[in-house]
Amino acid sequence: MTTPTTSTTPATARVAIVTGGSRGIGRQTARRLAADGFAVVINYAGNDAEAQAAVAEITADGGRAVAVRADVADETAVAALFDTAEDTFGGVDVLVNAAGIMALAPLAELDLSVFDRMLRTNVRGTFVVNQQAARRLRAGGAIINFSSSVVGLAMPTYSGYAATKGAVEALTLILARELRGRDITVNVVAPGPTATDLFLNGKDEATIARMAAQAPLERLGTPEDIATVVAFLAGPARWVNGQVLRANGGII
Fold first, then answer.
1. How many CA atoms does the CB half-sphere of 173 hold within 13 Å?
2. What are the φ and ψ backbone dihedral angles of 69, each rounded to 5 degrees?
3. CA 250/CA 252 separation, integer angstroms
4. CA 212 to CA 237: how far, in whole Å?
5. Which domains does the chain have, with CATH numbers?
6. In this structure, what is the dihedral angle of CA atoms 187, 192, 196, 200, given to the nearest 10 degrees?
7. Pairing state of beta strands 185-189 and 94-97?
8. Which residues, listed in sequence order, are joined to residue 142 by a DSSP beta bridge?
9. Across residues 50-75, what is the average pLDDT?
10. CA dist., res. 195 & res. 188, Å (int)
């Protein structure tokens, strides 16, 4: 964990935890929330250099951030993650659960050990992190989970990954109803093809071009596109609750 040089946080400041915050959509989301005035706790799985670089970007822009290493599927580590957020910044208002892994193969060929790893991070990890958020978020808060537009698109080779994200959507919508009376919104962002390392890995140029052409906007999404949606849900979108927002440029 690294504590920024600006270690004091105003009592009125809002605080966000971003899992998977060291790279890709999570990292851009952390930067956007920091720019919006949040103190940010960047959770990461193992890449210390990327996590510290993400913190440095935020603090260089005048924001407040710390990095905390934790396996999102480990309930003890996640409890400690929330402890750090509370000890460092005074509480937690927003959870953005962007941690996830993706492996592609036809269902008949997908190695079950790979499927188990996706289940552990994408489903158990979401459940564990949401459990802590449900117990600890302050009134006026927001929980934002990540699914994928492939749940609806039903694309070949995505069966294992889409199955994990379908589970994320189900538990999110139920949690929104379980938090009745708490003034906490719970939503899912389901990106379409987005230019991150997670998406681009293993795809040839022809595949990337074909997927970029699917949307009427005729391009891939960017991490900034998705971070804008998350910032909306984390901030002004108090009347959006229990929803799945398919941020995919219009792919049907």
1. 9
2. -80, 130
3. 6
4. 29
5. 15-245 (3.40.50.720)
6. 140
7. unpaired
8. 94, 185
9. 97
10. 19
pLDDT digits (tens, 9 = 90+) for 111-126: 999 999 999 999 999 9
Q: Are 190 and 149 in contact (CB under 8 A)?
A: yes
Indicate if the pLDDT at residue 2 is higher than 60.
Answer: no
Res 6 pLDDT > 70: no
Contacts (Cβ under 8 Å, ≥6 apart) of 207:
none
Residue 136: is it exposed, middle or buried by C-beta count within 10 angstroms (0-12/13-18/19+)?
A: middle
In the annotation, is 158 catalytic?
A: no
- Select which of 82, 89, 115, 161 is catalytic: 161
- Does the model's pTM come out above 0.90? yes
pLDDT at 10 (0 to 100)? 53
pLDDT at position 7 is 40
In DSSP terms, which residues pair with 65 in a beta bridge? Answer: 40
- Give the mean model confidence (pLDDT) for residues 227-237: 97
Backbone φ, ψ for residue 40 (5° rounding): -120, 130
Please enumerate in sequence order all residues whose Cβ is within 8 A of that of 64, keeping only pairs 6 or more positions apart, or say none: 4, 6, 9, 13, 34, 39, 40, 58, 89
Rounded to whole angstroms, the Cα distance separating 63 from 67 reads 13
What angle do the packed helices 75-89 and 125-136 form, to 10 degrees?
A: 40
Render pLDDT for 198-220 as a digit per residue (tens, 0 to 9): 777 778 889 888 888 989 999 99
**Is residue 110 predicted with pLDDT exceeding 50?**
yes
pLDDT exceeds 60 at position 232? yes
